[in-house]
């Protein structure tokens, strides 16, 4: 206050306590400094886009992540640096963030680096246009280049293994713990008769035959369920069309994190042809062994029969035909002659039974042999005999024996009542023929009957020596007929096959090499 002369008498004032405000301002400055420090040192890239979509702020990490000096991109649109293929999606995302005033969804895109390469970024935007001091859209981006490159390598490796799996001749598959298919490679069509998608969720064990299941599967399954792998396990499966094929499979249990088996993974290869060739080799070796034995026995036996028949002849000449003894001697002679025919069959197995071949038109031989074999029967054969049939290089007597054995078998199977078809034709076999014969020209002889057929489990044995479906005995059969046929045809460089269906009939296929002109 002043007096009349203007002298200050005293002072008056008002004090306001601003301690709290000052502390708040200090705390705010410290907080801003702290958050600015966090943002400036963030490993992620943070940029702010203004209302026009231009960069108004960027963190120093832009130099580490993208290689641009800080401040270089200010005032520019990020759209200039985004890969053209990714740009449409990013524009939609930004438009949505700007329009809806909300946080967007994470987006992945490629952003051009300073060195011309592309960085993969994962970014999310938040609309803070109305937030004082920011007034923009905050974009937080994380560099995911390493992850994307790793994913690309995984995809490449996965595709590489998938290509290998899908291009190989083996069948790769997976099943769950209940043995239902969860994966099948494209070879499912060749192995099972179904496309891969068709077998998913189908029980894998349904493809095994009942006999196979009981014979081997239970032991194999027990081993697998105890966590042990099974290698080169041979088994038979039934395809969609009913055909049986033999597989060799290796199976591995798939174990989960809790050490429980979650399924099984396996690879199978078809070995039907290999097994057939092995059986064929075993059969040939068996016939060779029997041939060596039979040949020696047959020659000695034949010498004895020659002497027996000689003495029988002398007896016949010294006994009047009217006496009862003459009839008995004749019966003995017939028995000895039958025994001599048996020795001829045995000699067929031996090396001494090699064919004496000549070039022959086989049509007449077949019609005459069939006529003889059906003597006394009501059966009427139905012939297909093309005029252009190739000649063959054969031993007529041995081939006559083949046709006779097959036709007699057919006659007995039909009990003289049914249809007998005889079909001849030319055939050209390539290197991959199922008979494993050298490629070239052949003739094919098909003999079909409508008999009762042969059970599938007996078919592999029909060419074995002394195997027969007839009763054994001098009047019923000795089980040598088809073995002799097999031996003769093989010695002629051909092949003989038998197919049969119960209740339908049997077809015998014979391939013989065509004679060279």
Outline of this structure?
The protein is built from 12 helices and 17 strands.
Please tag this protein with its features.
517 residues, alpha+beta, 5-stranded antiparallel sheet, 40% helix, 23% strand
Notes on the structure:
The chain has helices at 19-40, 61-66, 87-100, 145-167, 188-192, 196-199, 210-225, 272-318, 324-349, 362-373, 396-414, 481-491; strands at 45-49, 55-58, 107-112, 118-128, 136-143, 171-176, 181-184, 230-238, 244-255, 261-270, 358-360, 382-384, 392-394, 420-429, 440-449, 495-501, 505-513. The protein is α+β, with helices and mostly antiparallel strands and 517 residues long. The protein has a 5-stranded antiparallel beta sheet. Helix 10 (362-373) packs across helix 11 (396-414) and helix 11 (396-414) packs antiparallel against helix 12 (481-491). The chain is rod-shaped. It starts with 18 loop residues before the first helix and ends with a strand.
Largest sheet: 5 strands, antiparallel
Helix content: 25-40%
Give the mean pLDDT.
Answer: 82
Please state how the strands of the largest beta sheet are arranged side by side. Answer: 2-1-5-4-3
The proportion of strand residues reads 15-25%
Work out the radius of gyration: 47 Å
Structural class estimated from helices and strands: alpha+beta
The strand count comes to: 17
Give the secondary structure arrangement, pairings included.
Layout (H helix, E strand, L loop, with lengths): L18 H22 L4 E5 L5 E4 L2 H6 L20 H14 L6 E6 L5 E11 L7 E8 L1 H23 L3 E6 L4 E4 L3 H5 L3 H4 L10 H16 L4 E9 L5 E12 L5 E10 L1 H47 L5 H26 L8 E3 L1 H12 L8 E3 L7 E3 L1 H19 L5 E10 L10 E10 L31 H11 L3 E7 L3 E9 L4
Parallel strand pairs: 12-14
Antiparallel strand pairs: 1-2, 1-5, 3-4, 4-5, 6-7, 6-10, 8-9, 9-10, 11-13, 14-15, 15-17, 16-17
């Amino acid at each position: 206050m002043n007096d009349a002369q203007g002298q200050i008498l005293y002072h008056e004032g008002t004090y306001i306590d601003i301690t709290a405000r000052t502390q708040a301002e200090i705390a705010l400055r410290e907080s801003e400094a702290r958050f600015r420090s966090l943002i400036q040192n963030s490993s992620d890239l943070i940029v702010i886009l203004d209302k026009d979509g231009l960069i108004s702020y960027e963190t120093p990490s832009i130099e580490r992540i993208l290689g641009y000096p800080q401040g270089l991109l200010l005032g520019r649109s990020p759209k200039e640096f985004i890969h053209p293929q990714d740009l449409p999606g990013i524009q939609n995302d930004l438009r949505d963030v700007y329009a809806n005033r909300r946080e967007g969804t994470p987006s992945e895109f490629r952003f051009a680096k300073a060195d011309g390469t592309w960085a993969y970024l994962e970014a999310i935007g938040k609309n803070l246009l109305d937030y004082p001091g920011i007034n923009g859209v905050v974009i937080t981006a994380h560099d995911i280049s390493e992850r994307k490159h790793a994913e690309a390598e995984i995809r490449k490796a996965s595709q590489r293994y998938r290509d290998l799996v899908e291009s190989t001749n083996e069948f790769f598959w997976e099943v769950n713990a209940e043995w239902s298919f969860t994966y099948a490679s494209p070879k499912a069509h060749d192995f099972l008769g179904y496309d891969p998608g068709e077998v998913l969720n189908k029980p894998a064990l349904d493809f095994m035959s009942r006999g196979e299941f009981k014979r081997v599967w239970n032991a194999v399954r027990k081993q697998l369920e105890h966590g042990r792998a099974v290698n080169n396990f041979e088994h038979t499966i039934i395809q969609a069309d009913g055909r049986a094929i033999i597989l060799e499979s290796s199976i591995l249990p798939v174990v989960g994190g809790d050490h429980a088996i979650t399924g099984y993974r396996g690879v199978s290869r078809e070995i039907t042809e290999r097994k057939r060739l092995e059986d064929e080799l075993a059969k040939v070796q068996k016939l060779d062994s029997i041939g060596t034995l039979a040949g020696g026995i047959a020659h000695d036996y034949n010498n004895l029969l020659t002497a027996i028949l000689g003495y029988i002849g002398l007896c016949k000449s010294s006994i009047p035909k009217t006496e009862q003894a003459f009839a008995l001697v004749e019966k003995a002679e017939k028995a000895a002659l039958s025994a001599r025919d048996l020795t001829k069959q045995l000699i067929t197995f031996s090396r001494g039974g090699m064919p004496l071949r000549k070039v022959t038109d086989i049509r007449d031989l077949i019609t005459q042999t069939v006529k003889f074999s059906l003597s006394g029967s009501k059966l009427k054969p139905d012939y297909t005999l093309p005029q252009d049939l190739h000649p063959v290089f054969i031993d007529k007597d041995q081939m006559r024996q083949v046709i006779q054995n097959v036709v007699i078998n057919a006659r007995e199977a039909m009990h003289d009542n049914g249809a007998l078809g005889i079909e001849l034709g030319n055939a050209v076999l390539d290197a991959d023929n199922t008979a494993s014969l050298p490629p070239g020209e052949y003739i094919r002889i098909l003999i079909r009957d409508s008999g009762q057929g042969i059970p599938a489990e007996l078919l592999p044995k029909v060419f074995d020596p002394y195997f027969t479906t007839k009763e054994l005995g001098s009047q019923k059969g000795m089980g040598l007929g088809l073995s002799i046929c097999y031996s003769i045809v093989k010695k002629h460089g051909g092949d003989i096959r038998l197919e049969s269906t119960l209740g339908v009939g049997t077809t015998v296929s014979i391939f013989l090499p065509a004679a060279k002109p």
